[in-house]
Amino acid sequence: MIRVQAEDFDPGAELAGFAAGNHKVGGICMFLGLVRDFLGAVPDGAPPVTAMTLEHYPGMTEKQLAAIEAQARARWPLEEVLIIHRFGRLEAGDRIVLVAAASAHREAAFEACHFLIDWLKTKAPFWKLEHAEGGDLWVEAKESDDLAAERWAKKT
Amino acid sequence: MKILYFAWLKAKTGTAEEEVSPPAAIATIADLVEWLKGRSPGHADALSDLRLIRVAVNQDHVGLDHPVGPNDEVAFFPPVTGGGR
Question: Family assignment (chain B) (predicted)?
Fold first, then answer.
């Protein structure tokens, strides 16, 4: 299941609910992403980042997340998949993304969860605009994210 | 053809969305980029360095050699930065 929303979510309630009643599930792995302090490379003496706005491409976001979920389901025997991604204005400490995978066994749940967050970061059309006291700055993509996703491509 | 711009490309072109009718000779994304650069100095600036830009046609990631047609939705944006950190 894919949800793209501005509102916050309750990780405990999501975790309790998303595979409830499916007794084929033996294990759930969840990744929760938060907005960190000092999101970008803030140079010495520069004002700290106070908040950010996450822009996205409505329609393509849902399409790409659904494709990522389908990829994971094709690779691992998953019972349930949940991806929640927020957009809009977020502050340090806020929840930004939740990925959960449920399977009969823990290994598939762990691997699928890791795959989902790595792929999401390079495929889903989101862009971070950081708000610092000195002005706004678009966050640049990280090569390490591309490498993390590439690792899974090589495994096929 | 519907063109969308996101993040700093939206700021530089001064538009989020525009409807365009390129000539029939414009067959690929690379052709389209060159043609769009002529629309304004802002477009030329936004599209000047292709290494900084990613493209989607009909909401799927594509390369510069991908074909484009009159009914396509084409989006230009920087490399994506979603997820936690």
Answer: Belongs to the MoaD family.
